[in-house]
């Protein structure tokens, strides 16, 4: 039997004791590694830097077993052996259990990741439940078409589940990314072996209890927590994994794609990095643009792949915007994520804190002006002040590379053509935004931006029914919406000869 992590919460949003199984969840059972060399992984509280718990490490042998059990489930109790409406009922049941345990999941997410409890409850957990419910509605609506050829033939397509899916998710939205990966896969009839981040595994592990309670058949969902170079690499290269989905850095995404191609050429979807451009024209609703600019970068502590980390402001309002943006940023409270008034908690780890601060140092060394922030906040945990840079040039490191923290650069522009060129001058193409009251300009600029998502007069708006993914080095494929189901289905053409005769002259 696997060990458990027990924590007593006592904050304004939730008071109570929570127990989480912290082993591997394989074939419907909680266990520890089959490999005698497996160790434990320390899980830290980013608000204090102290160890919360230690969990058993998963290794390649555990992935092998999980994949084997997932194949058995796919061929017996799931896939085409469970009707779509039954799969949908289970997904909706999971959503209901998540909503029942909303405060528990939100508390765990805040404790483990450092995001505020209010954000976890109002966004992460609530939206994760919506994703499961949304795909519960899709499960019995995945179908092909009858295709007209001649009256002598019946031709149609079937959309069949791919099979066993290896899924690798990041630490910035632990539960939300968990839902993005698992829900469409289960709706399509696939089985899953998922690797949560070793930094933030607690909500994924708690979810195994809800899968068990909902009655998900053993082997359909398997959770193996481990490191990227062991569990992640094994999933990407595994010859019996039919599809791999990865969310994370572009550098690691390249490795995942390479391993997938070197093994069985499995299907691959990648949701990778970004360097979002946020374009504010002089005719924008000024106050709303300022607030959305702050949300665009400082939401989730800047640990968001689609963050609006490059703000371009038309020159006629640039000085006014910088002053208002600085003022708005100064009012964002940084601190204890369980305090209701806190907007920004800590970064997720010491490594991430050090990485972000190294970018801040680079910006200063390259001559950028710190408008506000740029320092550590407090003396414990991994807190960083919200940071705004001005006086930047397009070749600076802080302008070109993804920082993944509460650091933003602000630049002036004069013409529409100029700002489109600047926004597109990036290896990334995940998200952009346009603020203007001119609908023709909004449509024109949105069409010219090379990004998978363009928000107009808003930022960081995500919905289960709207696809999300990137152009260029921001990835392949789409998450969410009907489009995500394409990654988890294979299209089979069937041609039935009704009355035709073979024409071979024999």
UniProtKB/TrEMBL annotation:
One annotated GO biological process: acetate biosynthetic process
Keyword set includes Plastid: no
TM spans (from-to): none
Pfam families found in the cross-reference section: Aldedh (PF00171)
InterPro entries xrefs: Ald_DH/histidinol_DH, Ald_DH_C, Ald_DH_CS_CYS, Ald_DH_N, Aldehyde_DH_dom
Keywords (A to Z) from UniProt: Oxidoreductase
MF GO annotations: aldehyde dehydrogenase [NAD(P)+] activity
Coiled-coil region list: none
Aldehyde dehydrogenase domain ranges (all copies): 36-494
Keyword Oxidoreductase: yes
Recorded family membership: Belongs to the aldehyde dehydrogenase family.
PANTHER family hit by this protein: ALDEHYDE DEHYDROGENASE-RELATED
Name of protein: Aldehyde dehydrogenase (NAD+)
Organism: Kwoniella heveanensis BCC8398
